[in-house]
């Protein structure tokens, strides 16, 4: 199979979907791998590293896309890349369709087969290709929040961990999943008073057992959310519904109860966000202020640490990419139920119900396309 890997062109996105070791594995399996020149530089991989393992370097995006039967990316194609979509292409990347109707309809119109990292789902309900980036983003959320709490950036001027004789900052985390757990580890490690809100009592019991004493688990409901954010210095949004828009847990009017100069970091922004006032931002211009509250909405947070993020992501994605290449997408999805859940659309039809429901689109089950 011909496999293409273009350079990511989203603002300040320095990850790459395939490292040289992955290219070597695909070449060893008999596939042709085309890497756009410079695609790996942001993650510390030179063109020569790919050539040394048998990959072919191509000199523009059109060649990386045009040569490919299977196209591997990190982030969803932006508008400038939609021209390369076609009905005989299999696209394997993060897509987050439910947050962007224009993106969704452009991909549907192309007829491309779109398999989303974020909806591949194991029987345990774990999202194995979202987990590594959620780990990175959860940890980064605390780093970024701590920075923007500094007075220099308009924050309250609070040190997250405090000092002897001065109380630490309070961090409130919405969601006790992978993002929330990793954020809590970081916040607690820095000495902050940390609160996690989650709907699942079973999850809260687990977190109570494994988290340090400065982390408190509280059941998530409207009353408790308002009570906790009213005294928070940093709020981290980490609530996810696979493939669907994130639930809006903090409304515009709720900002009135928050402290001036407090910070919101919404990790769920690429799924629409769990804060009504959040919108996607970039690493170049990461924050804005609404009603005195600093909002951080960078939609590709792990792109700021591309070496770590690329290695973590490709460790998880390569086994699935090999299945798609070795078997073809239909056989691979028939044989692997987790990968089958990644199919969001094919042949101009939405095959993931949460995506279809987001925009009232016609829906057909993935299995109908796998014969």
Low-confidence stretches: none
CATH superfamily of the largest domain: NAD(P)-binding Rossmann-like Domain
Q: Helix/strand-derived class?
A: alpha/beta
Which word captures the global form? Answer: globular
Order of helices and strands: EHEHEHEEHEHEHEHEHEEEEHHHEEH
Query: Mean pLDDT, as a whole number?
Result: 96
The number of distinct structural domains comes to: 2
Number of separate helices: 12
Number of strands: 15
Distance between the termini: 20 Å
CATH class descriptor name of the largest domain: Alpha Beta
Note down, in words, how this protein is organized.
The mean pLDDT is 96. Helix 4 links the parallel strand 5 and strand 6. With 371 residues, this protein is an alpha/beta fold. It is built from 12 helices and 15 strands.
Provide the descriptors you would attach to this structure in a database record.
371 residues, Rossmann fold, eight-stranded mixed sheet, seven-stranded mixed sheet, 12 helices, globular
Write the layout of secondary structure elements.
Blueprint: E1 2-5, H1 20-28, E2 32-36, H2 47-51, E3 56-58, H3 61-66, E4 70-72, E5 90-93, H4 101-110, E6 113-116, H5 131-148, E7 170-174, H6 178-189, E8 193-198, H7 201-210, E9 215-219, H8 222-229, E10 234-237, E11 263-266, E12 287-290, E13 293-296, H9 306-327, H10 329-335, H11 337-340, E14 343-346, E15 349-350, H12 353-358
Parallel strand pairs: 1-2, 1-4, 2-3, 4-5, 5-6, 7-8, 7-10, 8-9, 10-11, 11-13
Antiparallel strand pairs: 6-14, 12-13, 14-15
Helix pairs in contact: 5-6, 9-10
């Amino acid at each position: 199979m011909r496999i293409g890997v273009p350079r990511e062109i989203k603002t300040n996105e320095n990850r790459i979907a395939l490292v040289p070791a992955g290219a070597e594995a695909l070449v060893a399996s008999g596939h042709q791998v085309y890497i756009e020149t410079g695609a790996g530089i942001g993650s510390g991989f030179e063109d020569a590293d790919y050539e040394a393992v048998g990959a072919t370097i191509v000199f523009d995006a059109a060649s990386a896309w045009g040569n490919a039967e299977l196209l591997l990316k990190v982030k969803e194609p932006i508008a400038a890349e939609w021209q390369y979509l076609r009905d005989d292409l299999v696209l394997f990347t993060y897509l987050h369709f439910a947050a962007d109707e224009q993106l969704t309809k452009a991909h549907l119109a192309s007829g491309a087969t779109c398999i989303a990292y974020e909806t591949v789902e194991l029987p345990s309900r774990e999202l194995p290709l979202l987990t590594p980036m959620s780990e990175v983003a959860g940890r980064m959320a605390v780093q970024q929040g701590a920075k923007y709490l500094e007075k220099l950036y308009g924050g309250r001027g609070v040190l997250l961990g405090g000092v002897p004789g001065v109380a630490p900052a309070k961090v409130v985390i919405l969601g006790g999943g992978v993002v929330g757990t990793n954020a809590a580890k970081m916040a607690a490690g820095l000495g902050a008073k940390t609160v996690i809100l989650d709907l699942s009592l079973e999850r809260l019991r687990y977190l109570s057992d494994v988290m340090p004493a400065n982390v408190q688990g509280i059941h998530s409901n409207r009353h408790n959310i308002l009570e906790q954010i009213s005294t928070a210095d940093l709020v981290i949004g980490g609530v996810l519904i696979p493939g669907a828009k994130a639930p809006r847990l903090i409304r515009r009017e709720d900002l009135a109860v928050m402290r001036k100069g407090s910070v919101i970091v919404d990790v769920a922004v690429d799924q629409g966000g769990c804060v009504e006032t959040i919108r996607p931002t970039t690493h170049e211009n990461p924050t804005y202020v609404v009603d005195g509250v600093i909002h951080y909405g960078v939609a590709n947070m792990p792109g700021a640490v591309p070496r770590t993020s690329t290695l973590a992501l490709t460790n998880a994605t390569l086994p699935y990419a090999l299945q798609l290449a070795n078997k073809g997408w239909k056989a691979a999805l028939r044989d692997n139920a987790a990968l089958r859940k990644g199919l969001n659309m094919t042949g101009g039809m939405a095959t993931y119900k949460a995506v279809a429901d987001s925009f009232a689109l016609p829906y057909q089950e993935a299995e109908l396309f796998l014969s």
